[in-house]
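FAQ: What does a ligand-bound record look like?

Like this one, built around NDP:
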Amino acid sequence: METRLLKGKPVRDAVFAELKQKVDAAPRPPGLAVVLVGDDAASAVYVKHKEKGCDEVGFHHVTHRLPATTKQEELLDLIARLNADAAIDGILVQLPLPKSLDEEQVLLAVDPAKDVDGFHPENLGRLMAGNPRFVPCTPKGILRLLTEYDVPVSGRNVAIVGRSVIVGRPLAMLLALKTDPGNATVTLCHSGTRDLPAVTSAADIVVAAMGAPRFLGPDHLGEGAVVVDVGINRIDDPTHPKGTRLVGDVDAAAVKGRVSALTPVPGGIGPMTIAMLLENTWEAMCTREGDGA
Ligand code: NDP
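The answer part, i.e. the structure of the complex:
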């Protein structure tokens, strides 16, 4: 069987082009504030990608880089200032925060109308209630990618492996809503799932969001399944000039020819996540300006 590669980059490019056109015609650019605390290497790379994305579409953006020793009150003060800043439509606190900080309290402090990551309990609650405002960017990007590649979701069995609040749980909720896209039958798997291969190999669509390099192989995936690989894992690779490379949670080489479609890593869900972040920020501005996006 030929395995179709569901590349995120072309879809990202199309979303960017549309946003750029809208920004060029808008009275002011949308503004995104990114808060990065500490020196987590992966977080620094993600923030760079976000800044680059903002530049490409013409958004106003500021990044606040704070030391790992930052106190909770200092961080809350900064968020309060960003909440009140008229030029800022979206606020993103890069996770994970250093262990000394109370992540829940920080996320609660972000104005829900500027919470373009969709992690504020109010926005997560609205998603649960079936009336989403800001949908977390990775789940939103997964749905957009499947739509763009005409992968039907309604009525399909979807197995999601990983129940984090940023990927697995909101995705399960989105897919289960009686909406288009949506209306799927969802199984949410995790480390307590008994006989994971039996569950995932029975699914039409499998989403891997575990953070376990190349974990899912042919035994986990039914013939003809559509596979969305969210994982981004850096592994040692002496043959690579940098000595490391990125792989997903799926053993792509081993499942090619067995599954009908697969998102690549890198170049699959990563670019979609950034595209959806910028789309959410655009929507935040439109709502704040009263254009009712
Ligand atoms: P978390 O570590 O928060 O969650 C991992 C989840 O996977 C947990 O629910 C865990 O189960 C489950 N899990 C881990 N190992 C197994 C296993 N062997 N069997 C079954 N379930 C397992 O991860 P995130 O959701 O934050 O991230 C997941 C991956 O996605 C990472 O590689 C991350 O880098 C990547 N990512 C990529 C993004 C993108 O834009 N492409 C965006 C966000 C994340 P349990 O709950 O029982 O511990």
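Follow-up question: can I read anything off the structure? Yes, for example: The mean pLDDT is 97.
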